[in-house]
Write a structure and sequence with these properties.
Number of strands: 7
Largest sheet: 7 strands, mixed
Oligomer: single chain
Structural class: alpha/beta
Strand content: 15-25%
Number of helices: 7
CATH class: Alpha Beta
CATH architecture: Alpha-Beta Complex
């Protein structure tokens, strides 16, 4: 299936969507983005990785900033780093943030693998998330369950981005360190939703009591 340009989904949007659908829409549809210390650290880390270029380490070819695409899924993006163990790609996603966001990063990494499989015709069974703060890798196996999550997430993100509406804010602990808090206004919107719900309940027409005319 051929996708129009405005239907393409960025690989990175999958991680944003898994973390917070409202944040995903604000960034990838509304063009909102505010830098804070966390996003700055992440951006600088990715820039350093991409600027290093390619090399060979212990017989393993390493390519950085690798463009990605999947015509089948309508995905586009860039891999931080791809190792080629003989002919088998092994994507590595660099993350500066806490390991508690592993699930979102794993979804993004698996999407990279699906792109690489389509691009190279070679199966990609696993990859790794590199946690910059601890200088350690966590290997991710791209099993059937994780692949299914990607297959489900891509059309969900596409529907979100073309819908024209913003999801309700999560308004939980995830908002505290979000760089888009001022644009999202989770407290204000959540309070407005609660007020609207109470108003609708208050002014909902009452059914007549039994026997009333």
């Amino acid at each position: 299936m051929a996708y129009a340009e405005d239907e393409l989904v960025f690989v990175s949007a999958l991680a944003q969507y898994a973390y917070c659908p409202r944040r995903c829409a604000l960034i990838h549809r509304e063009g909102e983005f505010e830098e804070n210390v966390f996003t700055l650290r992440g951006r600088l880390l990715h820039e350093r990785v991409h600027d290093d270029g390619g090399e060979t380490q212990a017989g393993v070819r390493v390519e950085r900033g690798v463009p990605l695409w999947s015509e089948r899924l309508g995905l586009v993006g860039k891999a931080d780093l791809v190792e080629f163990h003989e002919d088998t790609p092994y994507p590595v996603e660099y993350k500066h943030g806490a390991k508690r966001h592993f699930a979102e990063a794993a979804l993004q990494l698996c999407a990279q693998a699906l792109c690489l499989e389509e691009m190279t015709g070679v199966a990609v069974p696993c990859g790794a998330i590199y946690h910059h703060s601890s200088r350690r890798r966590t290997e991710v196996t791209f099993d059937a369950a994780l692949r299914a999550r990607v297959e489900d997430a891509v059309p969900a993100v596409r529907r979100l981005l073309v819908s024209g509406s913003l999801p309700s804010p999560l308004n939980d602990a995830r908002c505290d360190k979000c760089s888009l808090r001022d644009a999202c206004l989770p407290d204000v919107v959540a309070d407005g939703n609660r007020v609207g719900s109470l108003g609708r309940a208050l002014f909902r027409p009452q059914e007549p009591r039994n026997g009333a005319s």
